[in-house]
User: What shape does this take?
Amino acid sequence: MTVQVSLLAIATLLLALTIFVWRAKPDAITHRWFAIFTLAVANWTIGIVGLQSESHLDIWGRFTFASAALIPAASLTFIHYYPAQSGWPTSVLVRGVLWAAGIISVASISTPLLVVDNLITHEGLKRTTGPLYPIFATYFLIAWVSTLAVLATKWIRARGLARARLQFVGTAFAISGAGAITANLAFPVLTGKSTYSWFGPYFGLILTALVAHAIIRHRLMDLRLVVHRGLTFAIAMLLSLCPVAVALAFYWPTLVAHFGPDELIFLLGATVVVAFLVPPTRDIARRLLDRYVYRTRANYQRTVREASRMLTRVLDLKRLLPFISKTVVEATSVEGVAIYLRDEDGFRRAMAQRRNEASEFEAPATAPASVIAALTRVQEALVADEVARQIVTDADRMLSDDLAVTNWALLLPVISDDGLIAFIAVGSKLSGDPFYSQDLDLLMTLANQAGIAIKNARLYAQVVLANEYIENIVATIESGVVAITSAGRIAMFNRAAERLTGLAADEITGQTAARLAPCLSEPLLASAADGAARTLPEIELPGAERARPVMCTTSPLRDPDGIVLGAVAVFSDLTPLKELEIERRRAERLAYFEVLASGIAHEIKNPLVAIKTFTQLLPRRAREPQFVDEFGRIVGREIHRMERVVDRLRTLAHPGRRPEYAVDVRAPLAEALEFMQATFDEKSVTIDASLGDTPCRVLGDHQNLEQLFLNLLMNAHEATPPGGALSIAVTREAEHVTVSVGDTGPGIAPELLEKIFEPFFTTKQRGSGLGLAISAGVAQAHGARLRAANRPGGGAIFSVQFPLAPVTAPVIA
Assistant: This one.
């Protein structure tokens, strides 16, 4: 009898597990096949209980084998689909196993091919098997071994939580299957007796325990919540039955003496039913009492859940505030709700809602100062009734009066990191009831969540406003602006960028920076990668019609912590500047030629006048030897003068191509000094030369450089009075070398500093005005710049700044 009861308990546990699994997800194929598997095991256990009852052995024997035939096929199908469908065994093979199981089960229940007879002897149960039994045993073993093989394969390939789940399922199937096969298949085949067949179902306890542990601890098939609720309900039932069981045990002798067996069974059944009805009856009574006591039907948990879902999604104050107001009104059935938000001038009404027009609920445009002071001080919910009962100071009396005037029954502060950012004023309940503790808990929970939502909405509004402001600015500027994210995706592309690149913003936004021209994408991606700013003075940007010269600057975009979030490129079209530069050069060239023509005319006209005069006098004075000699001398001199002007003009027009050899600039300077030394000595001019010890190589032509320095030294010699001094210095910097020649003469008038390099401009009584112009041309041919300035102590200084020659340039010794 004990064996039967224990086996029935095991069958009940298996059936309970079947129901739990199937009800959790009825549509899931894994849940269905696991339920079929445990149901087959439960039916097999019930069949063995029937055989142990020693009655109707033939029926129970066939039912037992019919149920057992389904166990390996159901387990193999379950493992085939859990946790994901496997490639082996194939679906066709699985369906074949199921067909075989069905055929064997039907044959067992309807024919004696599997079990011919069952007998109870003094040694226990003994059965006579039919011709189908060897096939059944072979099928059972092959299907079970296949199940374990599939489990092992999936366990080897699985990782993490899936591996732990498969480990528990495999252990449960292996231990329970091995025990049941040993007791109910192997032992009967070897001995011909089924003496210990009752022991096999006990291994179902191991199956149930391991699977339940996997469900609870590792969320097997997502059943933990279902099992938790079921176990909670079962434990509650058992705890409800404990006092009843103690009372029945105490009064059992009296009950047996006064009631018959049928009456006792009815009494026990009624007691169990009442115990099962206690928990749901308690919940129903609590809900009814809550409705009577609190006069509200609000489901506070559902209200908080729905409010939380909405408050975390909405970022628009125009939608957020009405939702908060509506939630408070519906949850507490109050006359009205008003929401006040803080701005620069205080707290202003942002939202107000009344239940009806006859309501006395007031919502002034600005919040009373007493309300703001009180909420800022306490930062907790204020109930008007409690404020009225606890008046101590004038501030308390003013607060109570303001609440009475506005008919505000409850104040809910909305607190953030920077203090009070808003508050919710709630009117009286329509029922006239006060606000109970659970009302306050609900409303303060809503207020706290509303505080986060309001702050997020305001920050979002500020971001949107700032973004629109930036977009409006970016859209109106003439420079192209392209911004990318840290992942290299284009986030901003303004109208000017569309015009300059020929790409459409709608098509390019969100694409990778590789869609841009390399001259833009490469510095952008580089700035986003290393966080360094880059400036490209002039690049050629391909466009839809033609390439454009642009100046591009890229900068990284960083968050407050300095982390690079992307990069932005600003590029400007240099075409208008180039056109203006061309126009300026054309105008300068015209002005230059005007000056040049005027100078040439002036320089040549004077000799021509002298020659013309002598030519006109020559017919009358041809016989005068003195006149003829003077004529020859003056004409020769004037012609030589014109030749010298023409030679200088030729030098000015053709300064020579830019040299390609590295020359130490000190060498031609030293030779020019040596050539002028005697001239300086005649005038008692002191020379202070500082040429340095380090070679200063520039790309230049030795003779042209020497001529340049000779011109500067001669100019300084002419400007320096007798006994004066000249200072000559060579200064080397990182990328340049500067040669300066300073004198102690009268200097240059400030208004003439920009004109002295023009052709034929001179401040001397005698001079062609071409020396400095030629010097400037030679300097320009060497990529240098010739400048003139006045020295603070008197005199002028001329400086020539050369770019240093590359290291790879050929050197002239």
Residues 235-294 form one domain. The chain has a mean pLDDT of 79. The chain is about 60% helix and 15% strand.
